Amino acid sequence: MKQHMTDEELARKNIGGSDRVFKTVFTKEMKEKGYTILIPDMLPIHFKLIIKIYEKYGYKMELLQNTSRNVIDEGLKNTHNDACYPALLVIGQFMDALKSGKYDLDRVALIMSQTGGGCRASNYIHLIRKAVAAQFPQVPVISLNFSGLEKNPAFPMTPAIALRLIYAVMYGDMLMLLYNQCRPYELNAGDTDRLLARWQHRLGKLLDKNDYLYPTPIYKAMLNEFAAIPRSSEKKPKVGIVGEIYVKYSPLANNDLNNFLISEGCEPNVPGLMDFVLYCCSDLLNDKDLYDVKNARTVAYEIGYKVLLKFQRQQIRVIKEHGVFQPPHDFEHLRKCADKYIHQGVKMGEGWLITAEMAALAETGTKNIICTQPFGCLPNHIVAKGMSRVIKQAYPDANIVAIDYDPGATKVNQENRIKLMLANAVI
Question: Is the sign of the CA dihedral 215, 262, 253, 68 positive or negative?
Fold first, then answer.
């Protein structure tokens, strides 16, 4: 290409394939022009904090909220039939947004997270690029990853950004936990939602400074304020939500399962995102032991794992000392739960983590469990359905149901299956 071309012209690079798909790279010039970066809706609480972090570094981001049937239709039109339901939804949400007329297509970019796993975590971004390049070749797709899968000088993963993102995960997990333990019992409708919004705003400001580095007083303040919400003492069935990470968390993918359970008089119990982060770290450490591999990368992951586990244990300790709310599970305890039923070498998709979360929930009083299973996610189906039987054998009163989410499944049928499970809910 000619040297006098602009960054945006240089950004388009052929990435191979018989159909000659092009990769449009996000450049510093695009950042300076104020491109809007669209984020798929997976974890609304956490992602709103992440948006605030990137605002500090000069990026303009927006969390997509489009949830119409057209999202599914666009996904079906723009990816092949073998793609899993989460991939279909992410692509559909992006394509629906780009066609909505809401955005300047010459000043918009997309972002997708990658973890380096064997399925969605690595391959979605290529499916997205293929779909986008066919109709909007000028729109870049950015990779957000910690593992160096893709490097982009215009969107770097610096230590400062990475540290803020880790704390955003911890604070997001805390907000999600407190919200789910307060909202079903609130006496004044809207109290929990209003407090959640206030804390999201407050945490956005804390993450802009260095105050976020001292989480203990922040955790205590959060615990005290949520504990002050007037709540009933009524006992309600707790329902755990496990499964493939996107369908487990995304209101778009699971038909707003969290709020549906609350409307049915239940308390949702959703394991935090930090468990998945630690799971990804532990997979490499397990490989080190299984295949006798030790290098600079494994040493770095060992250190990172210990630091993240320390962060999680600090949060658990503060919640226990406060004494009002139920803390999340220690990740090392999850690993021990998994070892009773499945080998930690089973790591495709959410692998052994699904089994561990089901066992830990059943062990600590959350006997009702919904395993969210997306169409096309083979590892999830094998591990989730295959291991639920042994969990039920260990905990005879465990009430586990697998709910399939796919383009052809109706919300009514899914909710009816959940209601049937709730008819036998264990309190």
Answer: negative
